[in-house]
Amino acid sequence: MRYVLPAVIIVIGLITGMFGVLQKTVWAPDDQRTATVQLDEPGPVVVIEPGVLNLYPTPAQLTATAADPGQEITISRTTKENADAWVGASDVTRITGLQDETTLAAQTTTGGEG
97, 55 in Cβ contact below 8 A? Predict the structure, then answer.
């Protein structure tokens, strides 16, 4: 009879351990999150606002493609101040965050509205 309580505690510990393993494997959320945006008329410049690529703790990967495969795309990394100075009064589309879990929020401004 004195071994019943330790046996029950061991069984509870094993069950708790199983739930812990399941929570970190089978029940865990996907490690990779993908958010996209389709820009019909983005203008000459698209700026990703600070903090957008750091919304989640895992490192971000950025992929940009043009509608026309022959169109050239340049991706640069700089500070917000330098990006704003470089954009100036040009038309610009700013990626400001997430609209929902799978869609990026974009805001387009024309010539100096900014």
Answer: yes
